[in-house]
Give the backbone structure.
Amino acid sequence: MARERQRARLVRDGVTQSLTEIVSDLPKVENRAMREGAKFFAEKLEQNTPVGPDPRPPNKYGPNTPYSTTRLKEDVKWQKRGQGRYVVGYGADTAWRAVFVNNGTIHITPQFFFEKTVDQYSKDVNKIVEDVVREELMKKR
């Protein structure tokens, strides 16, 4: 005896509406997740950044400039750069100096603190981003 075909009928109204809501909120969810990951990475980069010497006293060698008063460790920043994209690094006053401290020169031993931070915390940042996305999408259910 031949088996009769079994058919299931799906109503797609609820599914379509749910998917539409999720897709419309996706940019917000993506931005929040990436922002949380950037904040976490900025904290860890600040912890791993070498302190360096004390800033020089004002007007000792000329006018008080940002170079003489801002330490790398105090100038770690994160910034949004387009949809779902964040950049973590140093401010304009100190970014150019970070290259020398990180990569070294003939007189400065390289410390590679930026690469160490990326290697050490990239999995944690990815987990934070995944958790935030999962949390936001579960709210919609």
Summary: The radius of gyration is 25 Å. The chain has a mean pLDDT of 81. Helices lie at 13-48, 66-69, 95-103, 113-139. Residues 27-50+65-139 form one domain.
